[in-house]
Amino acid sequence: MSVETDRLVRKEVALGQIRELVANPAFIGELVAPLKTVNSDDVIFQYIAPDVDGLAPARAEDAESELAAKDDTVGSGRASIIDWAIKDHYTASDVTRYREFRRLAELAGSEAFPLTTQSMTEDFDTKLARDTASRRRKLDNRREQLVIDALYEGAITYDDGKIKFGVNYERPVGQQDQAPAALWSATASDPILDIDTMNEEMYDTHGVRLTRAFASSKVIRSVLNSDRFAARSGIAGATGGVPVDPKYLIDGWGVEAAVAVIERATGVTFTPYDAVYRTRPIGSKTVTVNRFADESKIVFLPPTDALADISELGFGATLTSPHPEGGWGSGYYEWERSTVDPWGHDKGNGIKMFPVLPHLEYSYVMKVLA
Description:
The chain has 370 residues and is α+β, with helices and mostly antiparallel strands. The chain has 11 helices and 15 strands. Helices cover 37% and strands 20% of the residues. It starts with a helix and ends with a strand.
């Protein structure tokens, strides 16, 4: 088998391995903006720079038509913006030792050094698999962060000191981080009225009612702060100076029951969202848990099929384009590189992608906690 043919076979196997790895089930990026294949990077940028006029202008029969107006918010640096990649480097000693022990195992068969050679080769194979899973996890984390930034903040702002860009998805100001009359941490809060008021505004403005909501567990638990839920239980006052709490007096009464009441009253289904990723600076023993989304906010979205008639992407999609190292296929790609001197080895994975949410005006972000 030639080197080129062997490389193709190994690439196919490696791509299969990383694509079979399962993404974090706590992520919502696939629900909101599922991966959608496009033919080239240009298609992604055509979507990122969206149409800004919904009506065609009139012209005389023999006149030249007007140029379609696009909001050119992103100019250059296409590959830098949409190509996300990460690699691991294996030193010459790692690679050489692995190759030597693998060769010993092949020559000795099952008669000599079976434990030593087997453990050495298995340890290195395990390390490769562990590193591959880690790279996939970091790529998935990046995808989730892009979608969540767009969804919660209405924009993606990126600056790692080398590459800097911003994409604004144009959610109306009056639908971004709007606070209810009383924060849900207060006893005077009224979650049902807040949601109904929001939906009335959305229907009057856009002709759509929002039926899906993503919020942190902290937000969802806060609905029980409202005195209206205590009144609903029929229990009020205090005993011996201790406030009466329905949770302790009524079996089955709690956050789930309160949210079920809100869902039946408003028609909005709540989904808890608490996904995180972890970081630890080099040299530090402290692990930091980073939330993808602001835990004080609720994002309200339309039904999944509400925009099918006005957008081929529906509410949104994460567009992914082909890459030569993926056999000119979209989605994840893989590469390997060996240096001549020293004999080090690099293995990496990437994906060309960017979330496109063409109709973020059909969404609403409510900031209900301080």
